[in-house]
Amino acid sequence: MNPIHLDTLLSIIDEGSFEGASLALSISPSAVSQRVKALEHHVGRVLVSRTQPAKATEAGEVLVQAARKMVLLQAETKAQLSGRLAEIPLTIAINADSLSTWFPPVFNEVASWGGATLTLRLEDEAHTLSLLRRGDVLGAVTREANPVAGCEVVELGTMRHLAIATPSLRDAYMVDGKLDWAAMPVLRFGPKDVLQDRDLDGRVDGPVGRRRVSIVPSAEGFGEAIRRGLGWGLLPETQADPMLKAGEVILLDEIPIDTPMYWQRWRLESRSLARLTDAVVDAAIEGLRP
């Protein structure tokens, strides 16, 4: 199997289109298409769905996984031969709350290696494994403990979210001394925000009709929207604590939502991936609950 063809397939998936791959590889779009057609002819299967963005088919995912592993191992081999760590591509999937709270020390560690590159794919923690299964990433921060085939799992700790809102918003939805959770405007991070779908557990009995929901797909913007009274929401305690201490928001109840977090990575003999795993675990020890 031609390594150049595999690299071209990987570029299409990473760039999201044949045109993007042509720019990344400095070749014409027709050359990209010819390489993929040659690879598809070789394996006898369609490998890329010509969608926007382009996606690997089930057969293509197998080759994307192989291509990404090949790129990493080739880069590490080159670095060892040259006596330095350079151009080591590390791609991982992570949720926004982790990225904005406990994960940043990983940046310090990777920066100290002197040449590795880190590409982050942002996704809800309940969906990061889909990127790992497809071969889009080498590792993922996830809430799923069951390993993806070919992967190993490390328990990281627990992320706690607190229900908070401004005092004025809380007061506006108090009815006979009780908070009307179903009527109070609520915030969502995005359509895949599984955590927020649990926000009424233990707070409301029975079905709830249409709610007033605002979507804010930014970790920083989400907290700011709560602080400015757009709605109530579940915020990581490390982000909520400064606002609580400043009196800008209040804790709505004593029902936290605790989510166990895990790191899944490909079972691959890679020094760089092992070092990245150590960095993720160390950051989690400092930033998550045991």
Briefly summarize what is shown.
This protein is 42% helix and 22% strand. With 290 residues, the protein is an alpha/beta fold. The longest helix has 25 residues, at 58-82.
Search tags:
seven-stranded mixed β-sheet, 11 helices, alpha/beta, two-stranded antiparallel ribbon, 42% helix, 290 residues
What does the secondary structure layout of this molecule look like, with pairings?
Elements: H1 3-15, H2 18-25, H3 29-43, E1 48-49, E2 55-56, H4 58-82, E3 88-94, H5 96-100, H6 105-111, E4 116-122, H7 128-134, E5 139-142, E6 151-165, H8 167-172, E7 174-175, E8 178-179, E9 186-188, E10 213-215, H9 219-227, E11 233-236, H10 237-245, E12 250-251, E13 257-266, H11 271-287
Parallel strand pairs: 3-4, 3-5, 9-10
Antiparallel strand pairs: 1-2, 5-13, 6-11, 6-12, 6-13, 7-8
Helix pairs in contact: 1-2, 1-3, 1-4, 2-3, 6-11
Please give a structural write-up.
With 290 residues, this protein is of the alpha/beta class. It is 42% helix and 22% strand. The strands form four sheets. Strands 3, 4, 5, 6, 11, 12 and 13 form a seven-stranded mixed beta sheet that branches. 36% of the residues are buried.
Average pLDDT, rounded to a whole number, is: 89
Structural class: alpha/beta
Number of DSSP E strands:
13
Q: Report the end-to-end length measured between terminal Cα atoms.
A: 46 Å
The largest sheet is: 7 strands, mixed
Helix content: 40-55%
Order of helices and strands: HHHEEHEHHEHEEHEEEEHEHEEH
Number of separate helices = 11
Radius of gyration: 22 Å
| Gross geometry | elongated
- Strand % is 15-25%
Low-confidence runs: none
